[in-house]
UniProtKB/TrEMBL annotation, chain A:
Keywords: Membrane, Transmembrane, Transmembrane helix. It comes from Streptomyces griseomycini. The keyword Cell membrane does not apply. The chain crosses the membrane at residues 36-57, 77-98, 126-151, 163-183, 190-208, 244-264. This is ABC transporter permease.
TrEMBL record, chain B:
InterPro entries: AAA+_ATPase, ABC_transporter-like_ATP-bd, P-loop_NTPase. Transmembrane segments: none annotated. The keyword Disulfide bond does not apply. The keyword Transport applies. Gene3D superfamilies: P-loop containing nucleotide triphosphate hydrolases. PROSITE patterns: ABC_TRANSPORTER_2. The lineage of its organism: Bacteria, Bacillati, Actinomycetota, Actinomycetes, Kitasatosporales. It comes from Streptomyces griseomycini. GO terms for molecular function: ATP binding; ATP hydrolysis activity. It holds the Pfam family ABC_tran. Residues 2-227 form the ABC transporter domain. This is ABC-2 type transport system ATP-binding protein. Keywords: ATP-binding, Nucleotide-binding, Transport.
Amino acid sequence: MNDTKAAPAAAARGRGGLVGAAAAEWTKLWGVRSTWVSLASTAALVVAYTVIVGVSARSSTAQSSGGEPPTDPLANLGTGVVFMGQFAVLALATMVIASEYATGSIRGTLQCVPVRHRMLLSKSVVLVPVLFVTGLVVAPLGLGSAVVALGDVADPVTAGASVRQALAVGGYLGAVGMISIGIGAAVRSVAGTITVGFLVLLVLPMTLQSVSVEFVQKAGDYLPGPAGMALMGVSESDTYGPGAAAALLVFWALAANAAGYWVLRNRDA
Amino acid sequence: MITLSGLTKRYGTVTAVDGLDLEITPGRVTGFLGPNGAGKSTTMRMILGLDRPTAGRALVNGKQYEELRHPLREVGALLDAKAVHPGRTARNHLLSMARSNGIARRRVDEVLEVVGLTSVASRRVGLFSLGMGQRLGIAGALLGDPGVLIFDEPVNGLDPDGVRWVRSIARSLAEEGRTVFLSSHLMSEMQQTADQVVVIGKGKLIADTPVLELIERSSLGTVRVRVPDPADRADLVRRIGTAGFGTELTADDALVVRGARPEQIGDLAHEAGVRLHELRLQEPSLEEAYMELTSDSVEYGTARSANVTGGWDA
Ligand SMILES: Nc1ncnc2c1ncn2[C@@H]1O[C@H](COP(=O)(O)OP(=O)(O)OP(=O)(O)O)[C@@H](O)[C@H]1O
Ligand SMILES: [Mg+2]
């Protein structure tokens, strides 16, 4: 133990602030096995979805029954992300913040980084790029499995469209992560975050779709899930294009984090 | 240096901390005492910026916790040692803390060494015993080499060896000129560790005095007298009673006289011609002084019986 005055010696690098906070989050993220499990699950879920849909599309085309079988590999990838893959991302984001409330380690985190907006931001600063890269990896895997599963009924896929779709998948997963972090900070419980996340990302848009009031249907189109579908070109309605979808996702990510920040500011840890 | 001014915390209708004014100064160990639910942990959480005070302020080195640029380098705290993700290794936990405050990586290995966890640094924290978790919490507090240390019941769950170890750490930190603020329910331990004690009850300040002064001031200093002959004993008890002191009989042939000096009892015995086998001043302990101070403010107490030695009639 050194003298009190020796404290700066221990602090070889003067880092702290957002950079330090993000470095700490990065260290924490890769310090638990469940991170790898979640990321691998994201890929596995998307692949599984494209295989199931692809195989069934092939058989339904063979028997030529039903309307339009989903034979576009890029579309199958996109719907796979929305219907399955994103929930592994929701689980990961839940572990990043809501489970800190469950273990009580949020207090330790706030002792290290007491500035609330910095603490909250540092989570997204780390998670969003990780998820974007995950999307870039998941996309070719899901596309490959979609093509293989569809076999000779697969629609042709161009390189340009594939790259665009990979960026869209990465962007959407990043947005889902950031939205979930905001929800986690606002809701503060694992079960609550997963429930609210599930509602916002999938259940609510689908429920609103089925309401026969046009205004309500339209409103549902602007939720994060439908925005993701628009971004990945698998939207059922053509209310807006990919550019507006991206802007909408950014809006939801910021709004969720604003809500999370408000709770962080106003409630005891 | 920790400065509390008018610090108040209400949870709904419960006032957990009620207008605390306090200065916790460097260079000594300040013990923080009070019955269960007195507001000790709440006070510490407010110092660390985790709970927002309803009124008043808590400052560390003149600043609110949130204003500290590198908080871990100024304040080290152990609140709840179990509050770590169970799937993380001890080293990963400390490393993330170090990175958040720009603390050199080698410091992680240093503190692991200090608390004796080097050999289990790569084990997951979920597998740690209570005492190992406590040691990890202390490692985290020491990590930034801070000038202010806050420990909430640090010896909770430690073996006797660990208790002594915490005592020596607290002592040496204070001797290095740091501020050490430590809560505990172990009075004998506190008596040996603390220089100053702060006692609160129901959120209010009851005492803020040097340990020795608090003990001396206590009226519970007693004189132990052993009188072998039962008749003599009864006689002496009567005389002591007449002189205005209270007596209590212990299990053997001794009397315990409250508030008297040994010479006064010796004189009384001499006048009565009573033969004594022992005449000894019993120093009051912190525990007794504490019990006396807080008897009115025990919130979740059991009925306290003053005399468990049973009835005795002269
Ligand atoms: N988050 C909370 N919400 C509501 N009441 C609370 C909260 N935290 C503490 N309290 C109440 O405030 C009071 C003080 O609690 P605190 O934990 O500070 O006591 P303590 O002195 O640390 O007790 P102990 O010795 O048992 O640890 C208690 O009555 C407790 O029930
Ligand atoms: Mg407590």
